[in-house]
Amino acid sequence: MPMPSASWESLVWNTVTLRPYVFLFLIVFLIAAARDLGRWRALAFLGWGWSVAFVAEYASTRIAIPFGLYHYTGATAGIELYVSNVPLFDSVSFVFLAYASFCLARWAFGSRRRAAIAVLAGILMMLLDVVIDPLAVRGDRWFLGRVFYYPAGGAYFGVPLSNFAGWVLVGWVIVGGYTWVTRDAGGTMGRGGSPGPGAALYYGVLAFNLAITAWIGEWALLAGGLVLHAGGFLLLYGLGAALRREDPVVSRRT
Predict the structure, then answer these.
(1) Which of 92, 107, 172, 198 has the greatest number of C-beta atoms within 10 Å?
(2) pTM for this prediction
């Protein structure tokens, strides 16, 4: 028997109170991006990123592209906001994850390599999901709840490898689309914003997910995430140092 839908005001309230950590990260994104990219470009990034993520999720739950086939349980339909079969909080999350990855890529590459920044941002976003998605599959063991499932399971802690390829692609489209339209990867409409707060957001999201992973006792996933991201940070730091030696005028505003 379908659950009766709450009022619009209750749906909005429940959407925020059920997932306060998501909307805290979203607020951090809005503040950081407004200072970094400018207010209107931050809003454009929000709208574009959410649209790309929603289309990707909608398609994956029907034709298994780009993430592989999965289904939302609909357990909170009528309680929190959904767009079609996709919970709003889920597709909104891609926005701050993409922005944080964009900023970390700029921290490594500077602001004059738009194509390289988009490629690296997609990879960095996927690396976050190496922790996020296996943890979300185990949502019934923490306060996320059982939101979705892969009917065929997956090779990596219950997640199919196609999911990670999809995250790379979606990251490329969000960040690459933004930088292509604006012709700018430097922030503040070409005047060189600061990627530092966004890069900090990246590691804040990672730390939150690693903490929950430890809380539910998934030690193998925790160890894998720590090793992977420690190695990734060292590679990024080394890459940035090499680029600075090669080109001293590369922007490194943090």
Answers:
(1) 198
(2) 0.91
